[in-house]
User: Fold Ubiquitin carboxyl-terminal hydrolase from Cyprinodon variegatus.
Amino acid sequence: MADVGEVLMSVLSTIRVPKPGDRVHKDECALSFSSPESEGGLYVCMNSFLGFGSQYVDRHHARTGQRAYLHITRTRKNKKEDENNSGSGHPPKKKPTRLAIGIEGGFDVEQELYEEDVKVVIFPDKQEVNSDDLATMPDVVKERVSLSMAGIMAADSVSHALQVQQWDGEVRQESKHAADLKQLDNGVKIPPSGWRCEVCDLQENIWMNLTDGKVLCGRRYFDGSGGNNHALLHFQETGYPLAVKLGTITPDGADVYSYDEDDMVLDSKLPEHLAHFGIDMMTMEKTERTMTELEIAVNQRVGEWEVIQESGTTLKPLFGPGLTGMKNLGNSCYLNSVMQVLFTVPDFESTYVSNIDKIIDDAPSDPTQDFKTQVAKLGYGLLSGEYSKPAPDPGDENGAAEPRGDQIGIAPRMFKALVGRGHPEFSTNRQQDAQEFLLHFINMVERNCRSGPNPSEAFRFLVEDKIVCQQSQKAKYTQRVDYIVQLPVPMDQATNTEELQEAERRREEGDSSAPTVRAQIPFSACMAALSEPEMLTDFWSSAVQAKTSATKTTRFASFPDHLVIQIKKFTFGLDWVPKKLDVSIDVPDTLDLSGLRATGQQPGEELLPEVAPPPLMTPDVEVKAPVLDDSTVSQLCEMGFPLEACRKAVYYTGNTGIDSAMNWIMSHMDDPDFSAPLVLPGSSSGPGTTPTESLSEEHLATIVSMGFSRDQATKALRATSNVLDRAVDWIFSHLDDLESMDVSEGGRSAAESEGGRDPPPGPRVRDGPGKYELFAFISHMGTSTMCGHYVCHIKKDQQWVIFNDQKVCASEKPPKDLGYLYFYRRVAD
Assistant:
């Protein structure tokens, strides 16, 4: 075997030192959930800075030829002191009374301690080089390798940086004091380390006032620790507004607080302000956690949500394949619950988990950015059982306070970052709607499975809408693709109305002992509300050439292999404030929807003629831009509705005010052209439309390659301002708007198809009997989708199992009547 020094010299040119902007994956394997704490540790490529577990590092070496890896192993130190004691003879810490960090009544955070072992490993012979070995090697080797090792260990890992970025939901604003901050010429110079509070000698949580250079301690925590408020008191005495937290200063920035504005702020002149007191920002290194990092640590510590566990029951922890918990990354329970359920669907398992070796072999050079690789990695992590092991003993002898059933589990950081990238909500660490995330993920699957097996077909079905003109009795049929059945909740059908009224009466009288009564809604009433005809009062009938009334009936044109039902618990109150309906619904274990199958046009039934409504203005009248009430448009936009929809609402209600415009929006939200630009009668196009000649040929070709016609691709791109991703979303959600434009395999419209053949169908849907059995449901606890907690129950081998983030237990009393999303699988006749 060659001398290790010679080997290092031979690979020296491939060893890089991380630069600002380099992505360093030192916490998680790119292809598995191995970490430095895992058996075998983590190997970080010293060229690409990708991390690999022991089972994948040989494959990366063989594929890329890279030989030098930094091997990081990390073991948790035993806690020396009881968590419930401050360790200094002080009484036990008080419970926090405010959801805040580092302020009175808020949370204190302790940093977990690890012992790390770091060494260079040279492949394929796995020769090891530690720091002591480097000291005996030539200077050129020692310098390059030492700098690379130090750079990798000092760099913020990608997962850590993303976590901080996602959690920092409130964007910091530039301080009003930054541009013209007064700084005293008092000769004060601050050393680069070793800071102490000038009043009490405290060495942690130290802040420097940017006006006079005073170094003082921060605010007092709820238990009296953390600081003695000297920096705050100094502001109150002097009025000097800005302070920087020493220990958080790096070349990229620092924590700056404005006492006057009472918030964390940005200081665009921070390098200049620091240099005034002798601090070179470009040479500083971070030695303390930032306020955002503290907030993340607190959220993960207190996010146990004991109330979700089934009341009065001791739950038996479960371990093994398909029974793997997922760590909550800070309000990621919605993602955890959805992905746990999806990977019990055979289509997702066969597409991603069964093919994981091929997917990894075909992955690009940076697999952390590849959708299929990260989905396969997640699926394998959930189903293999490799991570379904009890969490390590925290070392607390009084472990009764610890939640039972916790696992090591997996932390889906790379997956969450990838599927949320660019999305205004899923890229953050705020709580989200599980149903919206399910549809978002299905959309991503659709985009990434254009040529190959598509597991989302398991949920895809066709809906038939039948509209019957009440005056002519002629009908119109349209079909659209959907993935979820949204089941209305008819509150007026509650079976315990008297109890509800009595409880409400007692609450209004101020009776604090009034019980909380949940409305009992029969599932049959919900299904009846879904299937009963809807009355349309403002329907333009092409048969009578006038507005009249009509009925709209919705039926299944196909039944999917797996049916998702959403209980529409979230609604708007009279004041348009979102609220959640507190209801119990007797959702059945088996379901027969055969009676809701669409029948299509009936014998002897006449169809409404395909005639457009007449223009509201005569052709010889000059079309002018409409005069719209800008204040009403603005109010609607602030509620989150699309601008063009708001403009149309104001236009079609004749500028009669916010109430009538809002009613128009609520009545037309399901229209295919709801968000399309306002087109005035008599004009050929509306503002914002995209002429055909300006459409991207590449975008057209991409959509045509998915099996749609060029006309359909053109319409989709026009409706979405020539943005490809939006156009793909649009075309799948507006198939009813494209019903007269048949989809063909060659991308041609029906008119271009060869002699008289029946046009091929649109997006592929499966069909079969409409009989189903319940196999999973997702429940939500809280007052709205923007807060609270999600868990899921899944039926595994005839046993209900509760998945509550890292806790996986046998369920004794699955609360099937309180679910939000229900998942059914087809059963044979």
The mean pLDDT is 79. The chain has 22 helices and 27 strands.
